[in-house]
Amino acid sequence: MESTLQQEATLEQAVDLGLRPDEFEMIKGILGRTPNFTETAVYSVMWSEHCSYKNSILWLKKLPKEGPHMLVKAGEENAGLVDIGDGLGCVFKIESHNHPSALEPYQGAATGVGGINRDIFTMGARPIAQLNSLRFGNIENDRTKWLVKGVTKGIGDYGNAFGIPIVGGEVFFDESYNTNPLVNAFSAGIIDSSKMISAKATGPGNPVFIVGSATGKDGIAGAAFASKDITEDSANDLPSVQVGDPFMEKLLLEATMELAQTDCIRGMQDMGAAGITCSTNEMSAAGNVGMDIHLDRVPTRQDNMLPYEILLSESQERMLVVVEKGKEKVVKDIFDKWDLHAEEIGVVTDSDRVRYFMEGELVGDVPCQSLVLGGGAPQYEREYSEPAYYQEYKKFNIDSIKQPEDLKEVAYKLLQMPNIASKRWVYEQYDSMVGTKTMTTNRPSDAGVVNIKGTNKALAMTVDCNSRYVNADPEIGTMIAVSEAARNIVCSGGVPSAITNCLNFGNPYNPESYWQFVGAIKGMSAACLKFETPVTGGNVSFYNQTVKNGVEVPVFPTPTIGMIGIVEDKDKVMSLDFKQKGDLIFIIGESTNDIASSEYLATYHGVKASPAPYFDLDKEYAMQHMVKGMIQNELVNAVHDVADGGLFVTLVEMSMPRELGFDIVTDSEVREDAFLFGEGQGRVVVTVSEDQEEEFIEFMMDSGVSFTLLGHVTKGKLMVDDEHYGFITEAKDLYNNALGKLLEN
Predict the structure, then answer these.
(1) Would you say the C-alpha torsion 160, 163, 168, 170 has a positive or negative sign?
(2) Helix (H) or strand (E) holding 321
(3) Which entry of 69, 97, 99, 640 is annotated as an active-site residue?
(4) Following CA atoms 156, 161, 162, 168 in sequence, which dihedral angle do they give, to the nearest 10 degrees?
(5) How is 82-95 classified by DSSP, letter by letter?
(6) What pLDDT score does 237 carry?
(7) Plot region of 104 (φ>0 → left; ψ -120 to 50 → alpha; else → beta)
(8) How far apart are the C-alpha atoms of 481 and 528, rounded to whole Å?
(9) Nearest Cα to Cα of residue 51 among 539, 507, 513
(10) Which helix H or strand E contains 501, and what residues bound it?
């Protein structure tokens, strides 16, 4: 024992593992001695940004966490839990797998899907739906095409085999993501609220099991890898990318669901980032206990794995389970039935330390509280400063842009731009029907809607973030991301409940990147308070950038918002498609003379420097409140928010499902290009049958929210100010096939 602990780690080794010199000194102070290499490796992953949130936690604490439906607050368990009534809860979370996907897109994305689903069922919830939010670089680059194809195939293959439908998502392209794509995976599950499984270890003397797959050398130090820049040398980090097996995950799900019905579990946690290291220390710290863990009892894929390799491996489809003493056989029998490992590797102790043994020799001895978020892990208050571009962007004036003479040409070009065009090429690789719960496959809606069987309710969910807006103004852009998520829930017939977030930013040591992060937190807080959608958790992903010739180039700041909402009456799920010729088309909310940060301005005109689009949080909230009322009172038969691409794209998207069209008149007080293609916020398009026009207008007059009659639904012709914009079949063909042509070219 003494010989191992006397093999002291060096400062050089600590720095190579990602620790700062001052952090190494802190560790020596905590232990009262110099750590050995294994212990240094343990601290390196637990104090990495990915696990400790050391550069973000002080700001994350400012996010609103209280709400009417909250059952588990952020940071308390593996994922958030909200009450959805009838004794049921919804467990949901979003996480990133950006760095692994940049190196090995197929496995990087696949294991991201696997990891987020384990977070859900580890709490005892059965996953019912998935979403994803993807960001890629210039679509004309061969590497971007390789990344898109690898990521989407990885998500599709893993999700389809696992058997959970993907019910929505988003894909965005910008050259800032050329080297570092973003892959954010969301999962939601349903649970009996009284049967949640905690991630706290309890009961000294209780045995500790590792269950699921064997441990290999894939993913070693993946958490540390995710906490540094992507550089030209990052290919050397390929062993840090995990390898997934969705069929093993399916077996693990079913075994866990069976185990959850017993009274054997005294704590359970997924092995994600930092593997055994993280789960043993976090569970111990959460339960104010310790553990003795015997690493030689861990089932391994390779012979002669070293202690630090076993501890830092991020092999997939594994979980740590604390079992009530005397009930070990019940656990082993369940996992034997599903042909999975269930090995007793240790015991809960009445101490504050986690000790690791190898062949009876003590190889690591660490106080668990010193390793975890909110315990002894360092917390830094980073400097931040406003970048020069922010004020430059504000100088933009719409008068500097000449309105094109042929707006029909603009409209059709927009429909084919990769950020606007149908993402059918992507989502056709996903199974949206598996499980028979999806309600929006044939009834398109602004959010994914999933049936809650045995009740009259449904669950609405969405992921949203326009990162161009956030780059232009982090605070307003993030308010818009939360507001758009709420708008998508409301337009689908739901009531927003809570959010999870995936905060993707550049290097936190860069004051300008950190300024973007701080602004996003402020904007998110304001909007979440307004919509009463508390933050249940999520993750922070820093270091999303490329280093070229010594210069850091960060991605667009991307605070992805995952939101869930409750549809109280599933018969009132609202779809976005026009229903019949002659229905009246109204726009709810103000139309403004604004094209800032629009796809039209950025891509058609090539103007990147402009502020975030028009946005008023109070007016947005009032508008959404009215839309809820319209749907509840059954005054409208189609609802769709105005988002990327502006009003024209919204109308085309409403036209396509039934191949109907529209005949509208623009607002003479707003520039025609701004009216059609501007992305000013707070607008929703609805259709009203002629026999309900009077009741609808009376409802709106009482609301105080502005509304305008645009025109009516046609049999298939597209008309704007009496000008023929073609037929919906033509627009639909271009819209549906543009992305596929770009990717396959």
Answers:
(1) negative
(2) strand 318-323
(3) 97
(4) 30
(5) EEEETTEEEEEEEE
(6) 47
(7) beta
(8) 10
(9) 539
(10) strand 495-504
For residue 243, the domain's CATH number is 3.90.650.10
Nearest CA among 152, 209, 56 for reference residue 429:
152
Place of tokens 């990344």: 147
Decide: helix, strand or coil at residue 704: coil
Domain boundary among 321, 354, 379: 379
Q: Catalytic: which of 50, 99, 640, 712?
A: 50
**Residue that has been written with the tokens 């300008």 in this structure:** 512
Token pair 């508008």 is at which residue?
623
Of the three residues 379, 394, 422, the one that is the final residue of a domain is 379
Residue 1: which residues within 8 A CB-CB, separation 6 or more? 361, 362
Rounded to a whole number, what is the largest CA-CA distance in the chain? 88
Give the tens place of pLDDT for each residue, 268-307: 999 888 899 999 999 999 999 999 999 999 999 999 999 9
Q: Can you tell me the distance from the alpha carbon of 222 to that of 393, in angstroms, rounded to the nearest whole number? A: 37
Task: Determine which of 6-15, 188-197, 353-362, 623-632 has the lowest per-residue pLDDT on average.
Answer: 6-15
pTM of the model: 0.94
Asked whether residue 387 is domain-assigned, the answer is no
The count of structural domains within the chain is: 2
Q: Is 97 among the catalytic positions?
A: yes
Residue 446 lies inside a defined structural domain of this protein: no
3-state DSSP of 153-193: HHHHHHHHHHCCCEEEEEEEECHHHCCCCEEEEEEEEEEEH
Alpha-carbon span 82 to 93, nearest angstrom:
11
**Is 57 within a domain?**
yes
Please determine, for residue 433, whether its predicted confidence score (pLDDT) is greater than 90: no
Tokens of 424: 């059918």
Q: In this structure, which amino acid lies at residue 615?
A: F
Dihedral sign of CA atoms 364, 367, 369, 373 in order: negative
Cα–Cα distance for residue pair 107/242, rounded to 1 Å: 7
Give me the chain's average pLDDT, please: 92
Q: How many helices (H) and strands (E) does the chain have?
A: 26, 27
Q: Which domain holds residue 11?
A: 1-65+197-379
Residue 24 lies in a domain: yes
**Residue 404: CB atoms within 10 Å:** 15
Q: What letter would DSSP give residue 433?
A: S
